[in-house]
Amino acid sequence: MGNFIDLLRNENMKIYSRPRTWIMLGIMLVIMLASDIIAVSVGADTKSMWEAFMLQSILGFNAVVIYSVVIAADSVAGEFSAGTIKLLMIRPWSRSKILLSKYIAIIGFALFFFAALFVWNYLLDGIFFGFSSGTVQEMIGEDSTKNIWNYMLSVYGLQLLATTMMTITLSFLLSTVFRSGGLSIGLSLLLMFMSGTLSGVLSMLDKPWVDYFWFMNENLTQYLLPGDYDHTLGFSLGVLAVYYLVFIAVTWTVFNKRDIAS
Amino acid sequence: MSAPIVQLSNVTKRIGKRTIIDQLSLDLHAGEVYGFLGPNGSGKTTTIRMMVGLMKLSGGEITIKGNSIQTSYEKAIRQVGAIVENPEMYKYMSGYKNLIHFARMVPGITRQRIDEVVKLVGLQARIHDKVKTYSLGMRQRLGVAQAILHKPSLLILDEPTNGLDPAGIRELRDYLRKLAKDEGITVFVSSHLLSEMELMCDRVAIIQNGKLIDERVISQEGPALDAVSRHRFEVDRPADALALLKQHSGAIVQDGIELDIDRETAAWVNAQLVSAGIKVYGFRVHTKSLEDQFIEVTGGETVG
Asked: Which of B55, B102, B104 to mutate to test the interface with A (most CBs of A within 10 A)?
């Protein structure tokens, strides 16, 4: 039959031919620029470009997750509300493959925004604070002998894996099950922003099952520095993987089984 | 007749305890325009959704060129082009990008084919504009374009004349007949616009409450010259007229009489009436329209 790459090209065309995608990117880049300008103009005590880089990355991560959730929420629900799902599904492709092409395109979107964030911050901070090779110590103010690029890419990677992928996948699940973009965005972001508070509350409960909650295992970047943690990186990744597989299974099952009667 | 291109056998759809479609069987042949008539809520769209795989069957079987829509979906659907309900396209993209989108999903559609189809539906001037700027008629044309891009053997159109102006309806009708005749495409059209179906279709099926209640051939040529048909004469003295023509069985109707006679006899009857001093205001062949028949078989249920 056909070529799967063509399905991906279609999904990408639908994401990148909408002005909103470029507006979201523009807003993110302008915020990063503005934060550097403010830091310089108030004469902030920024020791090196890497200190600014780390702060801005954390700010940027939230933006990327929110944007990705918007795209993921709209991916399936948007086709239903516009009615285009009917024309999309009556092609010689299985429902699973069409859904997969959508999912991969969303992950591609998140990767693209992460890459843009990384490159833009590196350039901006280099220009404003002077390019330097830097150390992890400069970046986060803690004593560490790790290689800076290694550390930085790990931060980006773990951020992508834990918060971003999990939130995107949840949003995609809600979008498919409820066919409502608004509900999907709302619930996903609610969970994302509540996770810190919820894990605080849950950790006060002295019960063993608390460890298996999604929120308790979301902060993966902490494991990059030596310290005394409740769990190991492997344990947290394992817990997240179980949630991830359940999300994926539910999404695909529901999408394959349901009649399309919008 | 050749083997059917599309076969619906005992197709049943139940949602919860309600039976939406009940044991529906239809055979569609190559190159025919097949009308699917029914009052609103009779199950037309549900049947179409099952034919294109958007809904699963609760029972029965649908095959398209011998491929089951349930077990070899990808092969079966390759033969189908469809518009289900409204032609909803991606409004934020141009018409051309929409066509590229659907063309990519079936292997072997070239840019030339896209251009050819655009020309065929007469959208050349506006194809690079965003779909949100299109009128309903233009969206309908774009809908037809995406449905025929991959040269399907079966074209399914759900209420295709919705929102078209009279010129557009006529154009679509001529175009569908041409597709069926020249390219041997089977066209399956649903509608509740009966007069439309009468002009467009070779055969029609009438469904009501999910059941097939009638299926009939529609003659496009009109009755043969020597065929006996019902003629209505408008005259001033119906009783006298009928007495004069007692060798023909006739009936008195409102302001005139009706006789079952052929064309030549009708002219002769007219001469007889006039020479007997009965005023003839006019006479015409009184055919039952599809609408009359439809009301008759569905028991006068409202038809949209």
From this structure: B104
